[in-house]
Design goal:
This protein has 14 helices and no strands. With 335 residues, the chain is mainly alpha-helical. α1 packs across α3 (41-76), α3 (41-76) crosses α12 and α4 (88-101) packs across α11. It is globular. It starts with a helix and ends in a 6-residue tail after the last helix. It is found in: Cell membrane. It is a multi-pass membrane protein. Belongs to the binding-protein-dependent transport system permease family. FecCD subfamily. Pfam families: FecCD (PF01032).
Length: 335
């Protein structure tokens, strides 16, 4: 396990280094010079005020989504219970967009956006819990209800944007998912939120392990299943809301990264929860670096001065492709 954590940490450092120099206006030589105290004022501003907070926000948001996904899948005993397909992410987006349209929050006040996103995420999770009813333990039924809830919440978000079209430009990035324009204010708000709820999720590793074994086993072990599941869902919603408020709705990160973490670190959630956080950070950071490099290549090929590929579009495409590969390789498994 130590070697695996070390290898992933080294991979995270590599991805972080690539992301720092992947965008426009910063070559590896210039970045190295700035890090050693050189460079002019513009280069120092780009690296320390734009690139570095963007990197840290990407790492933290990826960790949040991965831990939230693993907590959801463990609490609901559903391999498809990611934040994206359980109404949590669409609910968080709807809450933030609605609060902004009503003037209760603004994109210049990240704390208000986080609170609005958390309320929306709780509402989305509660709606799924009510619709699933007695079949909430069935992975197939929970997945179907989750897709329906997500579709309804997405439609409500579109309606809010139609009523307040002036908010469309400032909200599109949250609907797709991007780390563009993230500054130190986003980082200073996100990391304490992620730390508190991440520690809370890790403290629930024992109850979550029992929940993965089934409600009967958990009850026989003396666990209060409703209370443990409620606390787990609260942690997952809070982590998702923080990530959505920071980078928007990144697709498939919370759905697929937990499977990678369990494959690498095993079923012991005391180990796999921190492992999922590290894997999620690597995935989002690597995807953001790839998106910036792709933007530079596409801008050069199309002779476009300003072309930006959002990281959410890349994670959605790659995640969908990976999910199709997994389903095709295990045709006998019920999803």
């Amino acid at each position: 396990m130590t070697r695996r954590f070390t290898a992933l940490a080294a991979l995270a450092v590599v991805c972080a280094g690539v992301e720092l120099v992947a965008g426009r206006g910063m070559s590896p030589g210039v970045a190295w010079d700035v890090l050693h105290g050189g460079g002019d004022a513009t280069e120092r501003h780009i690296l320390f005020q734009l690139r570095l907070p963007r990197l840290l926000v990407a790492l933290c948001a990826g960790a949040c989504l991965a831990v939230a996904g693993l907590v959801l899948q463990s609490a609901l005993r559903n391999p498809l219970a990611g934040p994206e397909v359980t109404g949590v992410t669409p609910g968080a987006v709807l809450g933030a967009v609605t609060a902004t349209a009503l003037g209760l929050a603004g994109w210049d006040s990240p704390l208000a956006v986080v609170l609005a996103a958390c309320a929306g995420g709780c509402a989305g999770a509660a709606l799924l819990w009510l619709l699933a009813g007695r079949g909430r333990g069935d992975p197939a039924q929970t997945a179907v209800h989750g897709v329906l809830v997500s579709a309804v919440l997405g439609g409500l978000t579109a309606m809010v944007l139609l009523v307040e079209p002036g908010e469309l430009g400032s909200v599109v990035q949250w609907l797709v998912g991007t780390t563009e324009g993230r500054v130190w204010e986003h980082w200073h708000l996100l990391w304490p939120w992620a730390l508190v709820w991440g520690v809370a999720a890790w403290l629930l590793a024992g109850p979550l392990t029992l929940l993965r074994c089934g409600d009967d086993v958990a009850l026989a072990a003396g666990l209060s299943v409703p209370r443990a599941r409620t606390l787990a869902l609260l942690c997952a919603v809070a982590l998702t809301a923080g990530a959505v408020a920071g980078v928007g709705a990144l697709g498939f990160v919370g759905l697929l990264v937990p499977h990678l973490a369990l494959a690498v670190f095993g079923a012991d959630l005391r180990v796999s929860l921190p492992g999922a956080a590290l894997v999620g950070a690597v995935v989002v950071c690597g995807a953001d670096a790839a998106a910036q490099l792709s933007s530079r290549l596409l801008a050069g090929a199309l002779d476009s001065g300003r072309l930006t590929l959002p990281v959410g579009a890349l994670t959605a495409c790659l995640g969908a492709a990976l999910l199709l590969v997994v389903v095709r390789r295990t045709p006998s498994r019920s999803f």
